[in-house]
Amino acid sequence: MIEFPKEFLWGAATSAYQVEGNNMFSDWWEWEKRISLKHLSGLACRHYEFYAQDFDLAKGLNHNCHRLSIEWARVEPEEGKFSGEELEHYRRVILALKERGLRPIVTLHHFTNPIWFAKIGAWRNRKADKYFLRYVEKVVNILAGEVPFWVTINEPNVYAYHSYLLGLWPPQGKSFFRARQVTHNLVNAHIQAYHLIRDIYKKNNLSYPKISIAQNMQAFIPRLPSLANKIAVYLKHKFYNLEFIEKLIAHQAIDFIGMNYYSPSWVGKGGSKDDPSVLRKNSMGWDIYPQGLYDLLMGLKNYNLPVFILENGICTDNDALRWDYIKEHLESLSRAMQNGVKILGYVYWSLLDNFEWDKGFGPRFGLVEVDYHTYQRTIRESARKFSEVCLTNKL
Ligand code: FCB
Prior knowledge:
By secondary structure, the protein is an alpha/beta fold.
């Protein structure tokens, strides 16, 4: 049997655009329609209306924290014009979490931008940080005191790659230079937001919250252990997984390492003893490799910062496989803890089935199933099994 510490945080995550519905001032809303994406986000899970019921479910599943994001475009639908009503909505949302004993982990940017910001070049704009900070200041002024964990930016590496290098997400840029420029601007924005958030807490005589990003990390594995493959793995690990985090550490602008882990990524050519074809897969074809979580966590030990798993999960129509995935990743996590890695908590992606970006509503990541016709929620068996771990701190 495995035991987790008493104060361990257990929960699930969502992001505003993927669950709320009707985010019509966001760049994705406009883009989905323009390129005629197969599934439009539309009403998504109607979480904007049903958040209280959804938090009841999380509480019933013994979660003690919850990660969600604030939709910038709702709060600032036009440049410089902030919506008091939407700010008030998010205050109610955060209070609803607290009333249920769920500690809020709040993300300020989760892939989507206001349309007006997209029109001026979004994160390529040299003043992107200024616009972002103005929004951050509004939100944090309203929520300071209620939020112990802030995540400024979700997966800056995924965002920069998908939106500016691979051409897959809006604005479909395909330039290495642009992706670097955006990464640079995101680093700057985070560093300033970090200090701004702390200043607001200080001004209000509040104890400091913990602030980080949610960094997507992949377990890079060489197909064959050749020197060339090993060098490629080293470089990918350094630039994809660690670069952003190291910059924030150098600027002393990070309190814990927020980590999102899903799968491995195979590097180089040739066969391998862990041949990817024999690994189990999620419904989007991503390999399942719990050992990768252990390896990555051990690699973070030297930074001497606690780690918080802010996303880990599987899309599948096979709920027994979902439970195996959770269980095996928790085993990896516990092994890393036994070997000296300090871990604050584990947040599963996602509480609900939701809009999986350009893949639409097909992939089912939820602990809770959503019927997109009736919007009815149904708790899955894997959620119940996970809820036992959350309750007992034992696996
Ligand atoms: C992560 C994203 C999240 C979700 C999962 C499956 O990269 O942060 O929004 O789409 O993948």
